[in-house]
Design goal:
- The chain is an alpha/beta fold.
- Helix content is about 30%, strand content about 20%.
- It is built from six helices and eleven strands.
- The strands form three sheets. It has a five-stranded parallel β-sheet with strand order 1-11-6-3-2, with helices on both faces. The chain has a four-stranded mixed β-sheet with strand order 7-4-5-8, with helices on both faces.
- Strand 9 and strand 10 form a beta hairpin.
- The longest helix has 15 residues.
- The radius of gyration is 26 Å and the shape is elongated.
- The relative contact order is 0.16.
- It comes from Hymenobacter profundi.
- This is LUD domain-containing protein.
- InterPro entries: FTHF_cligase-like_sf (IPR024185), LUD_dom (IPR003741), NagB/RpiA_transferase-like (IPR037171).
């Protein structure tokens, strides 16, 4: 006697439940969450991420090129008060003839912009890793209306973990009292979902990226 369609279906169900269900492959928890960016493309990946989050970027082929870029930027933005507190940055700007304020004179009332260095540049998020380890302290990257950063291509790392590892290599057990990730200019949309820049920090984040791949400068 031929099986009916119902009998065939029931037989297949019985056969299926007698077999163990196929299991998905076990996840490899050792694999990185995000695909790794080739080392030779890290700087490009960083710039793309940095500009995507609203950062303003200037590529500098040399220190002289940096001086020119900074001079033009100051003139275009009418920055009369550029505060610089790190000794090495002061020395560098003196060489380039860039006018700046090297102390805290009228800082609270005239903090147009502050120029600092950084610990690392994070390619995946476009973030700038800063700390309180330099003479810029905690305030110069937060209080002024514009935060200007001088960094080098050798400081670009793939991810946040790589940036923190770089900080530990640099400072050892004497970690800075403040380590912060700056991801784009300060912004909030808490009030009526209206985007406001500069509510809790600098309204502009500007990076001058000095290429030190071929020069130790």
């Amino acid at each position: 006697m031929a099986e009916s369609s119902r009998d065939i279906l029931l037989r297949r169900i019985r056969e299926a439940v007698q077999k163990p269900a196929p299991q998905p492959p076990a996840p490899d928890f050792g694999m990185p969450l995000h695909p790794r960016v080739p080392a030779e493309e890290l700087d490009i990946a960083f710039v793309e991420s940095f500009r995507r989050i609203g950062g303003e970027f200037y590529y500098c082929e040399s220190e002289e090129h940096f001086f020119d870029q900074l001079f033009i930027y100051k003139k275009e933005k009418e920055l009369n008060n550029l505060f610089v507190w790190e000794p090495e940055l002061k020395k560098l700007l003196h060489q380039g003839g860039i006018v700046f304020t090297g102390d805290e004179t009228d800082f609270i009332s005239n903090a147009d912009a502050g120029l600092t260095t950084c610990e690392a540049l994070i390619a995946r998020t476009g973030s700038i890793l800063v700390s309180a380890a330099t003479a810029s302290g905690r305030r110069l990257s937060i209080y002024p209306d514009q935060h200007l950063v001088l960094a080098r291509t050798s400081q670009v790392v793939a991810d946040i973990g790589d940036g923190l590892a770089r900080v530990r290599e640099q400072h050892g057990d004497k970690l800075p009292s403040m380590i912060s990730l700056t991801t784009g200019p300060s912004r909030t949309a808490d009030i009526e979902k209206t985007l406001v820049l500069g509510a809790h920090g600098p309204r502009s984040l500007v990076l001058f990226l000095l290429d030190d791949a071929t020069s130790p400068a």
